[in-house]
Amino acid sequence: MLIRRNAHELVLIEQVAHAKMAGDIAAQWGNDDFAVPTPHEKATLATAMHDEGWREPDLLPLFNEAEHRPLHFLELSMEDHVKLYSRGVDEVFAVDPYAGLLISMHWTGLYRARWGLQPGGIKWGTDGRQDEVVLAEENRWIDVKRSLMEGLIRSDLEQHLWHNYDLLQTWDLLSLYASVCDTTPGEGPSAHVFDSLASIDHSPGPRTIPSVPVAVGRERVQLTLTAVQPQLVELDPYPFNVDQLHVTVPARVIPDRQYSDADDVRRALDDARAETIECTFVRPGGRY
After folding, report:
1. How far apart are CA 67 and CA 19, in angstroms?
2. Which of 27, 162, 40 is nearest to 105 (CA)?
3. Cβ(193)–Cβ(209) under 8 Å?
4. How confident is the model at residue 248 (pLDDT cuts 50, 70, 90)?
5. Contacting residues for 211 by C-beta, under 8 A, at least 6 apart
6. Exposed, middle or buried by CB within 10 Å (0-12, 13-18, 19+), for 91?
7. Is residue 116 part of a domain?
8. Which of 2, 74, 191, 201 is the most buried (most CB within 10 A)?
9. Which of 200, 82, 103, 100 is nearest to 143 (CA)?
């Protein structure tokens, strides 16, 4: 579950809904400055399903006993994180091996600083479980890659695969930004989107996504996101094949109060107000 606090309310977004929005972002990626990924359809499928393992836990939902509220996605324990993602990765492998491979890379990347893209990484635990998961998934990749090799040059497969992995991280972060960050104009300091996600409280200001590849083997750029009107965000440089990309995600809104347990949260969700979160990405300096 993604959570953000608005005034005296909590806005809750299911992970699978966020992932669908990330897939919508992936589907429109590519223009004269940014190459369309290959295979685009499978990369988009992987992106839209990258949080499939969260489907059942978000229906519970999981509970943060220390904070007396629903559990924000980065507050999950290492043990639960492994169970959740393992189930989701297996489900996607059954649908499409290439998409499953990309999501396996995404999962293990969360324990490896997004394979170098995220300074400092995400701290899920220090019990060695991370290393076990990464080793087991890397061993699985060997047979999966062998099955995908027919008619391909190995280096081409690997280059495009890791390029698509890096793009999946970008699409994921763009969707997370649109879902939980403050997309109203503000003069706050610029910060990585990475650094804005752990808290459920947000302030306005420009955000950045570093190390975004423009094409296989080419230079990387930093995307800068600047809200110029509420929910209208300039994206520089601009990577999409449409002049404006409008994305939405459904949310439920409950009071920001002390909850006694998960059942208390469920009762609040029964009476929750439905809301649609919207964000439109536009070219810098354009006419809106």
Report:
1. 26
2. 162
3. yes
4. very high
5. 117, 166, 220, 222
6. middle
7. yes
8. 2
9. 100
List the helix and strand counts (H, then E) for the chain: 8, 10
Output the six-digit token pair for 132. 């076990």
Q: Is residue 203 part of a domain?
A: yes
In this structure, what token pair is assigned to residue 5?
């606090």
What is the residue type of 276? T
Reported as a single tens digit per residue, the pLDDT across 55-95 is 999 999 999 999 999 999 999 999 999 999 999 999 999 99
Residue 270: which domain range?
Answer: 2-282
Report which DSSP code applies to 29: B
Cα–Cα dist 189/203, whole Å: 10
Residue 225 lies in a domain: yes
SS3 124: coil
Domains in the chain: how many in total? 1
The distance of Cα 224 from the centroid of its chain, to the nearest Å, equals 17
At 178 the three-state DSSP class reads helix
Residue 288 lies in a domain: no
- As a whole number of angstroms, the distance between CA 265 and CA 270 comes to 9
What is the rounded distance in angstroms from the CA atom of residue 69 to the CA atom of residue 192?
26
55 and 17 in contact (C-beta within 8 Å)?
Answer: no
CA distance 48 to 99: 10
